[in-house]
Design brief:
With about 300 residues, the protein is α/β, with parallel strands linked by helices. The chain has 11 helices and 10 strands. Bound molecules: adenosine monophosphate.
Length: about 300
């Protein structure tokens, strides 16, 4: 596995390969890798000649300085895991390399409603920061396929929109969420949970499952209210649980049984914020719902 730190070196390395039409798969991460990240890398390995991964804890997408300062870093282990998963090139840029003219945004990405709801509402500015870093990464790497995790569903939609806005020739591939055996969605932030919090954390997924079951009986909204109370009783501070359209994230109050929808949730356990979601009728979620996006069974 090659390790490249300088954006210019990465461009130079890729120039011939891209000109020759080699299929490149790219997995952007913030490190502290776990099997969820590796699932993306393995998928990229199966579908591309060249697999690139980046580790960059992007300061501009954190709206909480404490969260940024305490973001876990496990670089040696990450390198070992990426090697084992078959990554060809690890891009490890510095903050200065990524943002030579400083952290202030150069442009505003018109994301519209997508950045006003759910994560956008509770983490103002977060998705502009995500677009800033992903735009820069895509400019440098210009991958044929970009591998993202369904765990961050709203981020998948935002990045798909960014790709359209900036006319990148990149296809988004969304990989399903990798879970612990008790259902907890894997996340780098899980390592911050105390033993007691770790025991409670899977209840977020349990709450989503309860809403999913109620949905088939047309009782989603009352199930959402009950799920919020259930989590609050277990010491969660719930930001939201929402039934929303898959393509726009607009809330759905009366599901017609066929529109692709998802149930999304975010909640704190003390200082650790957990997010998760379930896509309903996943088989309906195709390239049609999200242009230039493919999602198919692994
Ligand atoms: P992060 O390092 O948290 O920025 O995540 C990098 C990529 O890995 C994003 O596309 C995430 O959605 C994806 N990812 C994180 N956790 C999981 C998981 N449990 N299952 C699948 N993908 C994940």
């Amino acid at each position: 596995m090659m390790l490249i730190r300088e954006p210019a070196e990465m461009r130079q390395y890729l120039q011939e390969k891209l000109a020759a039409g080699i299929a490149t798969g790219f997995v952007p991460t913030m490190g502290a890798l776990h099997p969820g990240h590796l699932k993306l890398v393995s998928r990229a390995r199966k579908e591309n000649e060249l697999v690139l991964c980046s580790i960059f804890v992007n300061p501009t997408q954190f709206n909480n300085r404490q969260d940024y300062n305490h973001y876990p870093v496990t670089l040696e282990k990450d390198i070992y895991l990426l090697l084992s998963a078959g990554c060809d090139v690890l891009f490890l840029p510095t903050v200065e390399g990524m943002y030579p003219s400083g952290l202030a945004p150069i442009k505003h990405y018109p994301l519209g409603y997508l950045e006003e709801v759910l994560e956008g509402k509770y983490r103002p500015g977060h998705f502009q920061g995500v677009c800033q870093v992903v735009n820069r990464l895509l400019e440098i790497i210009r991958p044929k396929q970009l591998y993202l995790g369904q765990k961050d569903l709203q981020q998948c939609l935002v990045i798909t929109k960014l790709i359209q806005l900036e006319s990148f020739e990149t296809t988004v591939v969304i990989c399903t969420t990798q879970r612990e055996t008790d259902g907890l969605a894997m996340s780098s932030r899980n390592m911050r949970l105390s033993a007691e919090e770790r025991l409670k954390a899977p209840l977020l997924y349990q709450a989503l499952l309860k809403v999913t079951r109620a949905l088939s009986h047309g009782r989603a909204q009352s199930a959402i209210e009950a799920a919020i109370v259930f989590l609050q009783e277990q010491d969660f501070k719930v930001d939201y649980i929402s039934l929303a359209r898959m393509d726009t994230l607009e809330p759905v109050f009366d599901w017609d049984g066929s529109t692709p929808v998802a149930i999304l949730a975010a909640a704190f356990l003390n200082n650790t914020r957990l997010i998760d979601n379930i896509i309903i009728r996943e088989e309906d979620f195709s390239g049609e719902a999200l242009p230039r996006t493919v999602s198919y069974p692994e």
